[in-house]
Specification:
Order of helices and strands: HEHEEEEHEHEH
Largest sheet: 5 strands, parallel
Distance between the termini: 42 Å
Structural class: alpha/beta
Oligomer: single chain
Strand order of the largest sheet: 2-1-5-6-7
CATH architecture: 3-Layer(aba) Sandwich
């Protein structure tokens, strides 16, 4: 269920994020990269290793597999239900990706760090999707276990 009046850059209830990450099983990762130095590769690896069904989406026809996972050239090519669309693309592309996420009946639109667009969020929420922007699911999954040690010297 969408949270009312969310400031998508800063204001997420930790329970809202935790509930999303507990409920989703299948994640289409738009902008997935086979380059091991890219942030999207590390997130894909981590989410896949902890049990999420990751569906990499990359328009490059030469990229057919990432870490043994079949790569799709577009969201609309995915032949099974998608719970969450995780976006590693420029924020200017988020609105169009939101339209596609709605079309494939995804439940969640998640924009990675730096990926946010209020119009995309409103569109997705109006269609019943939960929306998270400017956050990383890999970071959010481990946040409950991270306790800052402010007493340590730098």
């Amino acid at each position: 269920m969408p949270q009312a009046n969310i400031d998508h850059l800063y204001d997420y209830d930790p329970k809202y994020l935790a509930d999303i990450l507990k409920s989703v099983k299948t994640i289409a990762m738009v902008g997935a990269s086979a380059d091991k130095t890219k942030f999207s590769y590390g997130v894909l690896r981590q989410l896949n290793e902890i049990g999420y069904d990751i569906l990499p989406v990359n328009p490059n026809p030469k990229v057919t597999e990432i870490r043994g996972l079949k790569v799709y050239n577009a969201l609309e090519e995915i032949e099974k239900p998608v719970d969450m669309v995780d976006v590693f693309r420029p924020k200017e592309e988020l609105y169009g990706i939101a339209e596609k996420a709605i079309a494939i009946k995804a439940k969640v639109l998640w924009g990675q760090i730096g990926v946010y667009d209020d119009a995309a969020a409103k569109l997705a929420e109006a269609a019943g999707l939960q929306v998270v922007m400017n956050r990383c699911p890999k970071i959010e999954l481990f946040r409950p276990f991270w306790k800052p040690r402010l007493d340590l010297k730098i």
